[in-house]
Amino acid sequence: MNIGQTIRSYILWTHPRGGIHYDVMVTVILAFIFLTPTSVFKDRTPVRWPRSGQVIVTSDGHNGIICELPASAVASGDSDMQSALQRAIEPAAGQVQISRYEEVRDSSGKLAGYRVWAHRS
């Protein structure tokens, strides 16, 4: 079998299961799946935040809650970020104590929102 016929048989997948050529094809496919970096595809899921001012509250499974809110929900002129976050999540979560928070940025590095871990007081 010459090289042209071999390439054609790989493209048409004509080799029987368990043969050396079948194993080579499967290995190439698996190597492509597991070794190709995600940056090649440029397929990043965009960060989707709720509408302006809306806060999403979920349980963290350990007697606490996680609040996600867009950056526009927090007063920008406040020097104490924790108290600004507290005021922003109170209408949705009630009276809570903030344990920690982190900024969430979109793919371009722009501040998209905040993720806040809290527990009921």
Strand order of the largest sheet: 1-2-4-3
Low-confidence stretches: none
Which range does the strand content fall in? 15-25%
Shape: elongated
Average per-residue pLDDT, rounded, comes to 82
Radius of gyration: 25 Å
Task: Output the helix-strand order.
Answer: HHEEHEE
Helix content bin: 25-40%
Count of domain modules = 2
Tell me the number of helical segments per DSSP (H or I, 4 or more residues long): 3
- Count of strand segments: 4
Distance linking N and C termini: 76 Å
Going by helix content, strand content and strand pairing, the class is alpha+beta
Largest sheet properties = 4 strands, antiparallel
Written account of the structure:
- This protein is an alpha+beta fold and 121 residues long.
- The protein has 2 domains: 38 residues, no CATH class; 65 residues, no CATH class.
- Helices cover 32% and strands 25% of the residues.
- It is built from 3 helices and 4 strands.
- Strands 1-2-4-3 form a 4-stranded antiparallel sheet.
- A hairpin with a 5-residue loop joins strand 3 and strand 4.
- The mean pLDDT is 82.
Give the SSE map.
Layout: H1 3-12, H2 20-35, E1 56-59, E2 65-70, H3 81-93, E3 96-105, E4 111-120
Antiparallel strand pairs: 1-2, 2-4, 3-4
In short:
The protein has helices at 3-12, 20-35, 81-93; strands at residues 56-59, 65-70, 96-105, 111-120.
